[in-house]
Design brief:
Largest sheet: 6 strands, mixed
Shape: globular
Structural class: alpha/beta
Number of strands: 12
Mean pLDDT: 94
Low-confidence stretches: 1-8
CATH class: Alpha Beta
Number of domains: 1
CATH topology: Nitrilase/N-carbamoyl-D-aminoacid amidohydrolase
Helix content: 25-40%
CATH superfamily: Carbon-nitrogen hydrolase
Radius of gyration: 17 Å
Distance between the termini: 37 Å
CATH architecture: 4-Layer Sandwich
Number of helices: 7
Length: 273
Amino acid sequence: MSSSSLLATSTVRIALANLRVPATPDESVRLATSAVAEAGGQGAAVICFPECFVPGYRWPGTAAPAPDPAFLERAWTEVADAARTARITVILGTERVTGDGLQITACVINPDGTVAGWQDKAQLDPSEEGTYPSFGTERRVFTAGLLTFGVVICHEGWRYPETVRWAVRRGAQVVFHPHAHVAEPGSYRPLTFADPANTFHEKAMLCRAAENTCYFASVNCASEGSGTTSAIVRPDGTLQCFQPYGQHGLLVADLDLGTATGLLASRCRTSPM
């Protein structure tokens, strides 16, 4: 096999759905299905959406529609149909109703429209516990062709780096990080990625990749003035690309999986994971 063929077989294209905050649950589904089609048309193997993109993140202290399991089932079916048409793996940030209450989760949908599984958010931000009382207790990795990947949701990737390492030690070359941050009154408005004057969050993206020798793909909604944007970080901790702040659209990139060796994650001697 030629060197160019080897390079081609180790390259995977991914898309991050850096979309505007949906105004209604119905709009969230329309935006999601449109983005799935667009990503498939650009040759992406995987598209990842922000945290709770469908039906929309429930910001603490704000009014939101009551959880609607029937709506969620219809929404998941529509997104799955779009995945099947586009022949793409979808990581859909969403919510579901459990016996313990509302839960933040990510639904992973195969290119044939079947559900590969769920990654529930285990580590909630303290501010979320009143709105989302149910939480996950298990982690898993998923596959999409040549790619093995994990999913960590918002607070998990910022404050609990062991969740990323868990996935990489089990073969993940990419860890996707759906999160939800929007501009807040009086907050610092960055112009450049990982601005030293900004909060720690974007610096954490760089660290999660470098700590584990994996790609870290973090996706947020397009909110002008938010402290974070969507970005893809290489396994050496350098920035591959990021979406301009507040710009609605897809962030698409080709990843060289040969560089995602997981070396530093595998060398950790003290981790119980």
